[in-house]
Fold this sequence. Notes:
The protein is mainly alpha-helical. It is built from 8 helices and 2 strands. Residues 146-157 and 176-187 have low confidence and may be disordered.
Amino acid sequence: xxxxxxQTPEGETIGALQLINCKPDFAARLVRGDAIxxxxxxxxxxxEQLAGSLASxxxxxxxxxxxxxxxxxxxxxxxxxxxxAIESRDPTTxxxxxxxxxxxxxxxxxxxxxxxxxxxxxxxxxxxMTELRYAALLHDFYAHSCVRESTRNRYPCAMFSAKTCAxxxxxxxxxxxxxxxxxxxxx
Length: 187
């Protein structure tokens, strides 16, 4: 058996890599009995070196994943704090951003499931759905920022990618939600 620590470049041990049963032939199957003692070999210094390199790479990958998750959680916190700050300006619109996000993501999911019609070829990746959710949550953040009114009117989809904006706006235009006479103020 060979056990090697998984260490980050900073020297922090975050796990261990364990190798069991060094066999001379990778395809050889180990069966019960005395044959195992004769088949299994000792790990060599070369095995230790390779396992050490693999363990270091695994440690870096785990550390990177943790850092990525921390950044994502930090961004989530920023989005929530921003939405809370914007909605605290007017208590009557409390929850508006979450409702817009739920509706927008729901419509994008409906577009994604379309098997016929103009959106049958439009599909969103998980990353695009997340982008869409953030953009919908932060849509009033953009509206309440210091952007001039004329700029905001010229670029209504600045928070969305072109593909996302076109698909969602096209879907909105064809649904009864906006053709039923509901005004924008009836959030």
